[in-house]
Amino acid sequence: MPIYNKLVRDRIPEIIENTGKKFTTRILDNKEYIKELKTKSFEELYEYIHAENDKDAVEELADLLEIIHALAECHGANIEQVEQVRQEKAEKRGGFKDKIYLIEVEDE
Q: What is the spatial distance between Cα 95 and Cα 82, in angstroms, rounded to a whole number?
């Protein structure tokens, strides 16, 4: 029996159960949950970085966004609050649309 030891989406146990396979799960405490969400975010980012086409890239971005939603809740916020902070930062410092790549800055 393969051992996964990883955070999975909420309906995965139901999906596995529908195949007739046996499985084991447990519910994480909040500290473990945040740790595993962070781990999952690296996994999904890796998959995004290695996506070979736009369709796969968008799918991985959606997975990352799902993790961001969950992490926002863990930190007492919702996605709208995260978006507000993003907008405020974009107003103060800009976004990344202009594709500016900083090479160097003169040292005093």
A: 15
Residues 6+ apart with CB under 8 A from 45: 60, 64
pLDDT tens column, 56-80: 999 999 999 999 999 999 999 999 9
- Name all domains of the chain by residue range, CATH numbers in brackets: 12-93 (1.10.287)
Judge contact between 71 and 40, C-beta under 8 A. Answer: no
The whole model's pTM is what?
Answer: 0.88
Report how far residue 103's alpha carbon sits from residue 32's, in angstroms, rounded to the nearest whole number. 39
| Angle subtended by helix axes 79-93 and 54-74, to nearest 10 | 110
